[in-house]
Amino acid sequence: MTDSSDTSSDKSDDEWELAELVVCEAIMVYKNRFNKRPYRTDPLSGKQYVNNVFEGHEDRSLDVFRMRSNVLFDLCDALRERKLLHNTRYVSVEEQVSIFLYIVGKNDSNRTVADRFQHSGETISRHFRN
């Protein structure tokens, strides 16, 4: 008779342990879902990075984008005038052209460029294909 009470006690303990594991897992899912940490945390956004390059030494734009800043601005104006590119909610024409030139000039991966410009890989791909 004690064997059956020990067995039911063991089953009860196992059920409690399983319930605790389920509750702990539910808490972890909740924390991960509602307490998200930002993935892109570079202090310079893509726009700030581009502005920083343009406002720096005149040769920096040539090193980073393989084009002098005055030529890049003229290109952006021409693309805007011909309605080939336009500012989007989050990405200016200057940043779109800079992203394109950065990828072509450095042969960097989408992931690297997304990290540099602080945009998602999807955003980088969309503007690169434009």
From TrEMBL:
Which top-rank group of organisms is this from?
Answer: Eukaryota
Q: Which InterPro entries match?
A: DUF8040, HARBI1-like
Q: Does the keyword Kinase apply?
A: yes
**What residues does the DUF8040 domain cover?**
43-129
Q: Which Pfam families match?
A: DUF8040 (PF26138)
Q: Does the keyword Kinase apply?
A: yes
Q: Which UniProt keywords apply?
A: Kinase, Transferase
GO molecular function terms listed in the Swiss-Prot or TrEMBL record: kinase activity
PANTHER family associated with the record: DDE TNP4 DOMAIN-CONTAINING PROTEIN, PTHR22930
| Name of this protein | CAI-1 autoinducer sensor kinase/phosphatase cqsS isoform
The source organism is Thalictrum thalictroides
Lineage of origin: Eukaryota, Viridiplantae, Streptophyta, Embryophyta, Tracheophyta
